Amino acid sequence: MKHELSNLRLAQFSEFVATHMGLHFQPERWPDLLRGVQNAAPEFGFTDEESCVQWLLSAPLTRQQIKVLAGNLTVGETYFFREKRVFEILAERILPEWVQSRRGCERHLRFWSAGCCTGEEAYSLAIMLRRAVPALDDWQVTILATDVNPRFLHKAAAGVFGEWSFRNAPTWLKEQYFHRLEGNQCVILPEIRQMVQFEHLNLAEDTYPSLLTDTNAMDVIFCRNVLMYFAPAQSQRVVEHLHRCLVDGGWLALGATETTVASSGHFTPVNFDGAILYRKSERPPAPVVMPVTPVAGEMPVVEQPRVASPPPVPDAPEMLRSTREMANQGRLAEALVLANKLVRAEKMNPVAHYLRAMIVLELGAMPEAAKALQRAVFLDPDFISAHFALGNLARNAGRLKEADKHLTNALFLLDRCGQDDLLPESEGMTAGRLAEIIGSIREETLAS
Ligand SMILES: C[S@@+](CC[C@H](N)C(=O)[O-])C[C@H]1O[C@@H](n2cnc3c(N)ncnc32)[C@H](O)[C@@H]1O
Question: In this structure, are residues 415 and 436 in contact, taking their beta carbons and an 8 Å threshold?
Answer without folding.
Answer: no
